[in-house]
Amino acid sequence: MLNTYSLLCYTREATSREEANNEDIAYSMHLALRFGNGDDSEWQPLNENYGIFFAAGVPIAAAAGEPRRACTAAAHCAVDPFDAPRQASDAVSHGAVMPGVDIVLKSLKDPFLFRLADGRFGIAATRTDRGGAPDGSERSAFLVAVSRDLTSFEQLGLVRLRTDSGVNRVSVAYQAAFDRYVISWIGDNGESYAAQTGDITAEAGSEDLLDVVREARPQELRYTGDCGIANAVPGNVIPISETEAKRLTERFGRIRNVGASVPAQHADSALRGEAAKASILALGATRAELAYSDGSRGTRAVDWDAAQLEALASEAAEGTFEAGQTRTIAGRIRQTIYPVPFAVERADPSVFAWNYNGKPMFMFIATDDTDGNCVDPHEGRTHMPLRIADSIEALSDEAGGRAREIDLLKCGDLNSEGRRMTGCFWAPELHVIGGKLSILFMPCFDGPDRNPDGTPNDRAGKPDMWTGSCHIMQLKQHADGTDFDPREPRNWTVPEPILDSDGGMLNPVQRISLDMTVISDSGRWYYAWQQVGSIWIAGFDPSCPSRLTSRPRQIVVPEFAWDNMIAEGPNAIVHEGRIFLIYSGSLVGIDYTTGLVAAPAGANADLTDPAAWTKLDYPLQKSGVYNGRWQLGTGHGMWSHDEDGNLIYVFHNAEYENGCYGGRDAQVRRVHWSAEGMPILDMQSDEELDPSYADITMEITAR
């Protein structure tokens, strides 16, 4: 191969949650890249030294068939022979799995990269329990996965060997001359062993056992040097091509702004008076084009020199800007850097650009998470805070947005069933449904004396999150179709619970349903929400938004240690023919992460079918350094747009100082689309726009 690169796979020794390197992250396959095969250059960790390949959780035997349909990462994994018999949850009888009960999370150690006969990548590793402890499979088996480019993975399951004396530090090599794979490993006794097969992918997940022989001269294929990466536990190194390295760098490297330009503009020299003046002033809307290191592009509005534009407009009006003449207008590319934090102790945030009877406005709504108490904050004064302003920046705490909050709902308000809503008001989202501005949210109610299983309820007579369910309220409209003022609580309808197609509760397993959002595709409308620790979806009719029209189906299950037994907070956007649905995992706190599933848009896909969605194997966004400071527990985001039409991402992160968790703060960032069409949620300000390119000029030629 010309211009070869070396690729190192490794795990890490776990350090701390504050460094996004607890056991759930450390015990996964990481990747590092360097040019060439020598030792004269440093290894460059990919994905900010975060895991890229994670072992999939294994559904229990009792969750076979339909209940495991949403376990897409484990789709090829057979019933685990090393799993102790377990009793299924009630979710299985409803065609679903419950995270932590019906699916057993896993980790891995000692990863090994190799090439398959067809050129694809193979991964062999020792599977472990979540957190790294042995799970029994290491006695006689190892995990195998395959990938075309190491940006997505197909987990095939375990290769089983005719031994019970330990399978450690597995290596795999394809011998083209014999069309076979040779598998080498170290037994618990320190001796070397081997097995061989003509098709390792067929062996993975099979019940057949491969015969084992002693290996007289063990083939040492693992990396033994110092890779220079903190806490790394190296696996092995393989050469990859320049094309493969470029693909990995585009997905897992940093993308930065490398240039800015403005297309040449022209003016009609035949125009005079106000028409000529207007044509010049209209050029003030010209946007700059930004180029990025991966070949992607973006545009940004520019603050053009108003005096220069006015002067040129006057020339054009008077006829002195003649054909063939060129003028240069100076400007500065607009880059709003939003305050950090944007809104303190406001979790699950939603920013919505809306047209109020012809007047643009921006709205911000969120869960009150004061001191981390989102169930019953302020000692019984739970509320739903709404902010409205003429710009996104004006919604921030720094601009006085908190002082101008309006309480749309308060503790004790009644829902349409006459029940007192006393707590939570979780994850309110703004949408237009059936032509009406709507808010989807979850209130909760005072808990009953006893839980459904008959045990005493410690939240009896107090707000109980487990009583919560998805509700909708809509802004009223005048007879002529214009909207009432959204700033007046009385202008909203009484909140209604959203029920299934038979009029029953959404979640028959645990009662609670939350984090509802809207997806519209191919003329059909869907709700997606969280219940049973996972994402569910169902159709609805916008003219009757409080009732589903199809059976709820589970479509996203947390299958990896990084999303840690929960998937919640879904939110979708369509970009270039694909629906990008983000969701959050790993429970509330400093380990929170953002995952991604995607489906084809406008293709009449059945979005209630888990097979329509493709899941990213690793987080789209995770804890990391942003503009020089750590942000931990990033997640529960919503897509929106700023004043210039740029896509933004609104999310929360954990308040965490000196080891103390204090709730969640809202943040706002712009989104960049990479050359391969992936959303980048963590682009630093100077990566988005290099300050040296901020000042720019526009050439206008009369003709």
From TrEMBL:
GO terms for molecular function: hydrolase activity, hydrolyzing O-glycosyl compounds. GO terms for biological process: carbohydrate metabolic process. Transmembrane segments: none annotated. Keywords: Glycosidase, Hydrolase, Signal. It holds the Pfam family Glyco_hydro_43. The keyword Ribonucleoprotein does not apply. The keyword Hydrolase applies. Belongs to the glycosyl hydrolase 43 family. This is Glycosyl hydrolase, family 43. It comes from Bifidobacterium angulatum DSM 20098 = JCM 7096.
